[in-house]
Amino acid sequence: MRTREFLSKVDHDRIVQAIREAERNTSGEIRVFVQRGKLKADPLIAAQRKFHRLGMHNTHERNAVLIFVVPRAHKFAVVGDKAIHEICGDEFWQGIVERMRKHFQNERFSDAMIEAVNEIGNVLARDFPKTPQDTNELPDDLIEQ
């Protein structure tokens, strides 16, 4: 599917609102990145690279999470920084990816990303609750490049 077609079917506002709501209860940061064009690399490796290019590894508590989607290649991945990954592990991320895959197969793209954000947000809130000193370290917008 072409990225333009994918993006026309995505409810940007609902996704951004889900990110904001999820981050309301945590010091963690969640971002959604939609990459235009093709992808030759493994989606997990590409997501890890994008995670670093976006500076997501620079959060104070190392608890940022990236949902990385490449519609044209029909690939996606979820990457968590060191602190959240140590708590959740690969199995947690794979579970999110599998649930997203089911929604994507039914072209319920927004639902896939919103449910992933909600699930990640619940874990972040449990393990990294918001503190009075917490600031929003990363933008909440849906990134399209």
Notable features of this structure?
145 residues; alpha/beta; Diaminopimelate Epimerase, Chain A, domain 1; 4-stranded mixed beta sheet; 5 helices; 50% helix
Task: Tell me what you see in this structure.
- This protein has a single domain, classed as Diaminopimelate Epimerase, Chain A, domain 1, CATH 3.10.310.
- 50% of the residues lie in helices and 15% in strands.
- The chain contains five helices and four strands.
- It has helices at residues 3-8, 12-23, 43-53, 82-105, 109-127, and strands spanning 29-34, 64-70, 75-80, 142-144.
- Helix 2 runs parallel beside helix 5 (109-127) and helix 4 runs antiparallel to helix 5.
- The longest helix has 24 residues, at 82-105.
